[in-house]
Amino acid sequence: MFCTSLIDVANEFHVPSYLFYTSNAGVLALGFHVQHLYDNNNYHVRESDFEDSEAELVIPGLTRPYPVKCLPHGLASELWLPIYVNHSRRFKEMKGILVNTVAELEPYVLEYLWSGGDTNIIIPQAYSVGPLLHLEHQVDETQVEILQWLDEQPARSVVFLCFGSMGGFSEDQVQELAVALERSGHTFLWSLRRSSPNILNIHPEEFKNLEEVLPKGFLERTQERGKVVGWAPQVAILANQAIGGFVTHCGWNSLLESLWFGVPTAAWPLYAEQKFNAFEMVEELGLAVQIKRYWRGDHLGGVAAVDLVKAEEIERAVRCLMEQDSEVSKRVKEMSKKCHAALMDGGSSRIAMQKFIQDVVKNIALPCSQII
């Protein structure tokens, strides 16, 4: 999705270009819409004020207005906006776009993309071929101990907190998280890492001494119902029957994994398109619990300060997340079944892949006949 310059190589060899879009269809539609507004001088979102704006965008394919406050930082950045807009322009040169999503998950936005856009926007055919997941996993001795501990817990009793390879927190935020987990009363598995002062060059690392950053006595008070670890085998953990909820940074792969295993999520976006993912999962689809609606800053952008999320907000979300018979939990379980069915014979994603292959064959045959 960031290698659009390869279209020029494909054109030189008379080969049709297709795009594999690793995020969701909603973000793809958002990018096309922003590009359309930008090219028509109707996009006036600025880096200095977008997080305080009360404006909303009507995004084709979404059923409700999208708050400007929820825009990914890159779509307001003076540096990154022209780059993202140019990628969206070039996406339209593709013969088709494979999206890592499921037709039943994003029906309205996919209908918009399938229609080819409106009268002013021509969009290539979109193929919903997901969920494409890497479910095989290897664990080391430390991680085996984590899974053994989970095996001893009751079904759906553990809340899992994990924030991806780029997710880390300040000591102040760690304190708030710890207080919330202790107050919630729920059993927890917390993958905890330190925020990086230069995240583009140095990934978050584990805290060297947990007792120095966690509230005094926290580890002792929660030792019977909690475990704080470093890097965690996320897929293996989500697959475990003990996991009842997942507090996540809303990376699209993580959200698809949680849906695959029927685990409801609480949204804590940190960077890139994750604010959009949180909006879609919570407000558009009702498949996640809200911690807070608006999130300032971006861990990768490094421009705006990241708000401190208070213990009260986290505790409320954890309690809501772990309600076994909640509407969110019921919808997630139903969507999990649909995700599995999509990859079976006759499923929506299997059919989409077949149509994609047919289109490739057709588009390769044409330039070959012209060359001959």
UniProtKB/TrEMBL annotation:
It comes from the Eukaryota. GO terms for molecular function: UDP-glucosyltransferase activity. Signal peptide: none annotated. InterPro entries: UDP-glycosyltransf_plant, UDP_glucos_trans, UDP_glycos_trans_CS. PROSITE patterns: UDPGT. Pfam families: UDPGT. The keyword Glycosyltransferase applies. Keywords: Glycosyltransferase, Transferase. The keyword Chaperone does not apply. Belongs to the UDP-glycosyltransferase family. This is Uncharacterized protein.
